[in-house]
Amino acid sequence: MATIDLSPLYRSSIGFDRMARLLDAAMRTDSNAAGGYPPYNIEVIGDNRYAITLAVAGFADDELSIEVENGILKIQGRKEEQDEERQYLHKGIAFRSFERKFNLADHVEVKGAKMENGLLTIGLEKIIPEAMKPKKIEIGNSLNLLEGSK
């Protein structure tokens, strides 16, 4: 496994420790991914809007949970053990429990979720705070801040 040395970044930057953790997590094989189950899509819906869709056929709404904590979106599916004995000639439908995690960028919020035709879709939106939006500075005659410092 390749490793990335981020020490040069730390010499001149502050607050990038979250990025280092994200890179480290991306480089490791995610043991919780259970070999790609359930399959999912990540879509760009529009400006600053996204959707994650997971194929969760066979799961009821009350067997699924969605949580966001510290910038991590966690989707879990818990299937109860079936008491009845069935005899299968072929069992290709996986009804096993799962957990999927997605790292969310700063200011990305979960806006809702819906279940339709065995697909769980989670809507996400990046909300840019007013303080981070570009603002136009008008040029005028008033320099109150600069005049007061003389």
Brief rundown of the structure:
InterPro entries: A-crystallin/Hsp20_dom, ACD_IbpA/B, HSP20-like_chaperone. The protein has 150 residues and is of the alpha+beta class.
Give the key terms:
four-stranded antiparallel beta sheet; 150 residues; alpha+beta; three-stranded antiparallel beta sheet; single chain; 2 domains; Immunoglobulin-like; ACD_IbpA/B; 3 helices
Strand order of the largest sheet: 1-2-7-6
Number of helices: 3
What is the overall silhouette? Answer: elongated
The SSE order reads HHEEEEEEEH
Instruction: Tell me the radius of gyration.
Output: 23 Å
Uncertain regions spanning at least 5 consecutive residues: none
Quickly give the CATH architecture of the largest domain: Sandwich
The secondary structure category is: alpha+beta
Total domains, how many? Answer: 2
Rounded average pLDDT = 82
The rounded distance between the terminal residues' Cα atoms is 59 Å
Helix content class: 10-25%
What does this structure look like?
The termini are far apart. With about 150 residues, the protein is an alpha+beta fold. It is elongated and about 85 Å long. It is about 15% helix and about 35% strand. The strands form 2 sheets. It has a 4-stranded antiparallel sheet with strand order 1-2-7-6, with no helix packed on it. Strands 3-4-5 form a 3-stranded antiparallel sheet, with no helix packed on it. It has helices spanning about 5-10, 15-25, 145, and strands at about 40-45, 50-55, 65-70, 70-75, 100-105, 110-115, 120-125. It folds into 2 domains: about 1-35, no CATH class; about 40-80 and about 90-135, Immunoglobulin-like, CATH 2.60.40. The model has no long low-confidence stretch (mean pLDDT about 80). A hairpin with a 2-residue loop joins strand 3 and strand 4. The longest helix is centred in the N-terminal third of the chain and has 11 residues, at about 15-25.
